[in-house]
Amino acid sequence: MKPSMNNRAAIPVDPAEVAVISALYQASKPVSGTDLANRIGRSRTTVHTKIEQLKKTGFEIHASTRNGYQLKKIPQELSLPLLHFLSCDLPKPFPIFFYTSIDSTNIEAERLCTAGTKPPFAVIANKQSAGKGRLGRSWHSQSEQNLYCSIAFAPNTEAEKLRTFTLWAGIQICRYLQKLVPNLPLKIKWPNDLYCMGKKFSGMLTEARIDQDRMQTLIFGLGLNLNSLESAFPEELRKTATSLRVEAKKTFEINTLCIEIIRACLSAYENCIEESTTESLVEAWDALDYLKGKSISLREKETVYSAIASGISPNGALQVKTNCGSIKSIHSADITLNK
């Protein structure tokens, strides 16, 4: 495999650290140094070294000469060895490429595909310097408290099969997050934004390479404002953007959440590829629809007009009721709410 063109290489995972985390995470009582050494196939000195390295990255591990080691707390920020442990039941192989900082996880996923990395895989970063949004917009992504992740697939199938993938992925992700905040109204703004209390807290971007009507690669990117404070947003975004922490008034465990979101995306992808879902897209979307019944402005190329959002069609197109009373299908447009 050729190296990535990005000037910041992915951080390599340490299998010994993953093994130590696995042993301590699943233990209900302290684990002795000897037992840990036997489990990971290393010396007790190596175990001690790995424990100290993990503590420096935010793991709270208590050590007792008599009882051994016990995991008390995991990091509040993303941890590569913890992500690898938590992803152990995802389909294999499923590489995770982790960066302290990168231009864009979607761009890096595309570079990795071009360099020969075989999907599926994930690209995750603490920060992005050129996060990508829909319609060429940028995504503010300078906080390590948030999640920036892209998942690459190699469908090699008819593009039609994945026409509604982004919508299904949004539904699956929104449903998972709703379980974490049952008292907050999480909604999806067509086609790819998540909203809470009238403010955006997540955006999704799907990019594909299609040759002769067959989709060769598909990259799904997600930016999720998770644990950032309101003060972390630029002044111009504070009236329109928020985070789950701000709305729920609590912090969330980002590593588990990251893997569960990846799992939700993999499920949405498989359902589309296998055409195995029996659930109605229209009904599933309706329960989470942020726009339905609202007056909106649509910009299609140079044309701007108002309409009433009226749900989506079975193929994922936005349905709007125009001023003349007719229903129009929208496949791509810049949409804003009318005040």
Keywords:
339 residues, alpha+beta, Arc Repressor Mutant, subunit A, BirA Bifunctional Protein, domain 2, SH3 type barrels, 3 domains, 8-stranded mixed β-sheet, 5-stranded antiparallel β-sheet, 15 strands, elongated, disordered N terminus
Q: How would you characterize the overall build of this protein?
A:
The chain is of the alpha+beta class and 339 residues long. It has three domains: 15-73, Winged helix-like DNA-binding domain superfamily/Winged helix DNA-binding domain (Arc Repressor Mutant, subunit A), CATH 1.10.10; 80-285, BirA Bifunctional Protein, domain 2, CATH 3.30.930; 291-337, SH3 type barrels (Roll), CATH 2.30.30. 29% of the residues lie in helices and 28% in strands. The chain has nine helices and 15 strands. The strands form three sheets. Strands 3, 4, 5, 6, 7, 8, 9 and 10 form an eight-stranded mixed β-sheet that branches. It has a five-stranded antiparallel β-sheet with strand order 14-13-12-11-15. Strands 1-2 form a two-stranded antiparallel sheet. The protein is elongated and about 80 Å long.
> Helix share of residues?
25-40%
CATH superfamily of the largest domain: Bira Bifunctional Protein, Domain 2
| Rg over alpha carbons | 22 Å
Q: Major sheet: size, sense and barrel closure?
A: 8 strands, mixed
Described by the principal axes of the CA atoms, the overall outline is elongated
Mean pLDDT rating: 91
In CATH terms, what is the fold-level topology of the largest domain?
Answer: BirA Bifunctional Protein, domain 2
Task: Quickly count the domains.
Answer: 3
Low-confidence stretches: 1-7
Question: What is the count of β-strands?
Answer: 15
What share of the residues does DSSP label as strand, in percent? 25-35%
Tell me what the CATH architecture of the largest domain is: 2-Layer Sandwich
Q: SSE order in H/E notation?
A: HHHEEHEHEEEHEEEEHHHEEEEE
* Count of alpha/pi helices: 9
